[in-house]
Structure formats: C-alpha cells, structure tokens
Amino acid sequence: MKIYVASAWPYVEAVPHLGNLIGSVLSADVFARYARLKYGKDNVIFVSGSDEHGTPIEVEAIKRKINPRDLTNQAHEYDKKLFLDVWKISYDNYTRTESETHKRFVREFLLSIQDYIKVQEEEMPYCEHDKIFLPDRFIKGTCPYCGYEDARGDQCDRCGRLLSPTLLINPRCAICGSKPVIKKTKHWFFDLSQFSDKLKEWLENNKDMPDNVKSVALSWIQEGLKPRSLTRDTSWGIPAPFEGAEGKTVYVWFEALLGYISATIEYFEKTGNPDEWKEFWFGDDVKSYYFIGKDNIPFHAVIFPAMLMASKKGYKLPSVISSTEYLMYEGQKFSKSRRIGIWIDEAPRLMDVDYWRYVLIRLRPEEKDTNFLWREAIRIINTELNDDIGNYVNRVITMVNRYFKGYVPNFNEDKLDDIDRKFMELVKTTPVVVSQLFEKGKLKAGSDEIIKIAREGNAYLNQKAPWDKVKNDIKVAENTLYIASNSVRTLSILLYPIIPTSAEKIYNQLGLRGIENEKWDSAGEFILDHNHKVEQASPIFKKIDQNFEKELSDKLEKIRKELDNIRPPLLR
C-alpha cells in the first residue's frame, strides 16, 4: 500500500497563523508520521509547498515597485524554516510554485486536457489609469451578498462567498483606487460541467470521504457546474501554454492544485528515481489524504478531481479530504491587520512547540468552529500533558527503578485479575481504534483515545497500589509494573505523531531508542520483559503558570517588535 499525504499549499503573502497551521500543515504532519509507523517509511510520501503566484503578490510588488519573485524568495525560505526546523513538520518535499519542475508540469498537463478547455470572451473591469485588467485581488468593492465594503474580486473575507470582479458593487482598482471601466478580454475556460455526473458518482460511492466534504461538493454540483476560467490577465505566474494566450498566466488555483503531482515528481527526481512518483499516483494500491480548511473544499473536492478525470492517464482521485472547520481566537477571527491571534513564528517564543502541537490537535475543529481560549490551552497542558501523561510516565519509571532496580519486573499470568485484564485490553486495542479514526481524518477523536491510556493507567496504579504490594504480595506488584511499563511504551508510540520530541523522551526513558522505526501495529504488544532495563525518570512536561495569561499582552508586544525586524518585507 502506498500512502500519499498532502497539506494545502500555504500562501506566502503572510506568515501562517494557528488556524492555518491546524487546518492543514500540522494535521497532515500528524497523519504522515502515523502513516510511516503504520505502513513503513518507504511507502509514504508527504508533500506541500509555498503558493507564490497570483494577484495578491503581484499587487504588493507593484506597490513596492519590485519584482514579485524578490518578495516570494525570502518569504518562502522564512516559512520553510519555520515548518521544518521549528515546528518539526516532516515533509519529504516542501517545494514552491516557482519550481521549474512545477512550471513545466503545469503547462504539459493543461495541454494534455485541451479537449475540455474552450476559449471565450468575457467582460472584465479595466483600470484606464494603470492600463491593466483587474482580476481577483486587483479589484475591491462591496460584497453583493453581505454588504462588506472591502471585498476582493475573488472572495469576500466577511461572508466567505466566492466572487468574481464583475459582481462587486462600487468597484475600485486596488492599486490606484480609480473606478474601472468594462472591457472585453479573451480567456481559456476549463469546462467543469462535463464532469458533473462523474464527480457525483465518485463522491457518493466514496465511503471514506468525510460527510462535511461530500456535502459541500455535492451542493456545488447540484447548483450546476459551469466552465471556470483557467487564465488571468496578469504577468506574475506560469505563462498560459495555449496558442494565442500570450501575455496571460494560469489562474493560481488551477496550477497550485497540480502542485500535488509536481511536488511528488520533483521529490523523486531529487532522489534519483524519476519514475517512482507514479507509484503514488496510479493503481489501486494507493490511498491519498489531503488536509485542508473548509474554505478550500470546492477546489479539492470538485475542481481538482475533475482535472484528474480530464486526463487520460488514470491519476488516483483523492481517497480522504480531511477538512477542518474554523479555529477562532478568543471569540474572534484571526486578523493580521488588527493583530488578533497568534502566528507560527510568535507561538514558539511563548511556549514549547510540542505543547502547541498537542493543544492544537486537542482543539482541532473537526465537527464545528472551535474557539481557542488561553484558559483552555493552559488547562490542557497542565491537566492532560502534565498531570495525566507526564505524571503517569514518571510514576511508572520511578517505581520500576525504586522497587526492581530499573528492570521491568516478571510477568505472572496466574496472578492476573480482572483489573489487570481490563487495562491490558485497553492497551492492546487502543492502537487499532486510533488507527481507524486517523484514517478517517479524525485526529482529535483519535487523541481522545490515546489519552485514555494515561488516565486509566493512573487509575490502575491507584487501584493496584504496587508500593504496598511489594511488601506483602510481590508477584502482584510485578504484574502491575510489567503491565504499566509496556503501556508507557504504547503511549509513547501513539503520541509520537502528535508530540514527536516529547514522545521520544518518554520512549528513551524506557531505555529504548529509535521510536521513528517502531511499528504502529505492534504498539499494543507487551514486549518489554524482565531483561529490559529502563533509565532514570525525569519530568517530561511542566505546568504553565496561571499568571501566564495575565502577562500575555506584554509578552506578545515584545515578541512582535522583535519579529518586525526579522520577518521578510512581504510578511511584515
């Protein structure tokens, strides 16, 4: 089985915030780490990259009077370092849409599906002052649906509705502010309508596809799919490959979606196996997982599969598209301009990255919009990470050292009771349950099951009281700490996808090395025996002081002043 994992490509116009992180990047990383344990490293590939093209970058470059690539070069490297070095996102390939492999593949792919592409004229706003057409972010105006006065030509930030430039009320050029005129221009359109029946059948028959994704995609299809413009009258992007399309570029959403394929091709080009990418894109023995925010559902569940269907090569359609709802920040939407929220270069300066990873997975908005509250984040760290998990690990390893000289004690099957059997059954079955949830994209639900081992483990120790049994029934004490020691191993492996650094510390304290080489399916086995020696216990986590929230505003202000001098120009 080959497993393909992808996170939606972050747009380089801004540093991602916590909502962006949990919506795609972090969620995909947790799943990719799980998949490597489950299916083997060589059978999994995890890719994404910086989405660099499109009108927001071009508008900003025009305002600054510089080349767009000068802006995106620095932004891409900044984000890449944050993901790979700071947040420990385990991409096999984090690339960019300015990659030559990507640009070449996009042009070749679009030429291969020309049977479904047609040319037609359309009327578009045109700025007579700047002598340019005004697609997408080049134009602003009032949203016709909610009345928001600063809506963009492609989407309204308030109500989230997708727009087109001609729908805006009181439109104005985003560069000079003048009122545009309407002029005709020629564009190339991908005819989505030809795939309505195929898309509907695919979605309805896909038992693994989450219901929220199906619902949005089927609603789009029911409303009636229409040809969608593939090209834009812009200069920053991939030149459109069609005859007569000189001076036009490929619409950023179409080419960014094709990046999922080009990133795979590029990875295997770099490893010297240029044909191996096909193993992840063709055939029945492939499952693909995409992690996105809910605003990206139509692109991933309608447009992208339609493009794959248009190709005659037989590309593998998405198996699971795991879409989160929105993460709010203290009851408000994240806002860069109003400085509402936490950004991913700020967060590690506030507390440990593993704490953030754990909190975000525990708050992952899988069923509905979720509110990030600092008091809840502190509760999760102090009670779950520290009291439940950290305390359990520390208790077990400390007692093995204290009562059995650091060696996992003997197992005495004749001394098992119902309390032992119940906890052992939980340890054995939890990896199976978590696996089933993870493979449906339910990472938070999976984490609910993982923490049960620590909670039930603490209760198990309290019930069995090995500190008393060592005095009068040594075999019972041996069983208790044999079972508990093995459960800590299980816990560390199941936590590894979520908090890799901390999980490895737990694993190492058990006297084990190489957690990344473990097998998920053996996580519930009781393999530590009386010949195995553990190391000394030391605290893995520590509590967050309750004064942290009171001091947060001053800390953030200081951090943001520091980052204003570090962030690339595009990201300030």
Give a quick summary of the entry:
By secondary structure, the protein is an alpha/beta fold.
Could you characterize the architecture of this molecule?
With 572 residues, the chain is an alpha/beta fold. It has 16 helices and 16 strands. The strands form 5 sheets. It has a 5-stranded parallel sheet with strand order 3-2-1-13-14, with helices on both faces. Strands 5-4-9-10 form a 4-stranded antiparallel sheet, with no helix packed on it. It has a 3-stranded antiparallel sheet with strand order 7-6-8, with no helix packed on it. The longest helix is centred in the last third of the chain and has 31 residues.
Core attributes:
about 575 residues, alpha/beta, Rossmann fold, Isoleucyl-tRNA Synthetase, Domain 1, 5-stranded parallel beta sheet, 4-stranded antiparallel beta sheet, 16 helices, 16 strands, about 45% helix, about 15% strand
Q: What gross morphology would you assign?
A: elongated
**For the record, what CATH class of the domain at 2-111 and 251-352 applies?**
Alpha Beta
Number of strands: 16
Q: Mean pLDDT, nearest integer?
A: 96
| Strand order in the largest sheet | 3-2-1-13-14
| CATH fold category name of the domain at 2-111 and 251-352 | Rossmann fold
Query: So what's the oligomer here?
Result: single chain
* Sequence stretches where pLDDT stays below 50 over 5 or more residues: none
**In the CATH hierarchy, what is the superfamily of the domain at 2-111 and 251-352?**
HUPs
> How is the main sheet built?
5 strands, parallel
Structural class call reads alpha/beta
Rg to the nearest angstrom? 26 Å
Q: Strand portion, in percent?
A: 5-15%
Q: Provide the helix percentage.
A: 40-55%
Indicate the CATH architecture of the domain at 2-111 and 251-352: 3-Layer(aba) Sandwich
> What's the tally of helices?
16
**End-to-end distance, in Å?**
43 Å
Cofactor: Zn(2+)
GO biological process, one term: methionyl-tRNA aminoacylation
Protein name: Methionine--tRNA ligase
Catalytic activity: tRNA(Met) + L-methionine + ATP = L-methionyl-tRNA(Met) + AMP + diphosphate
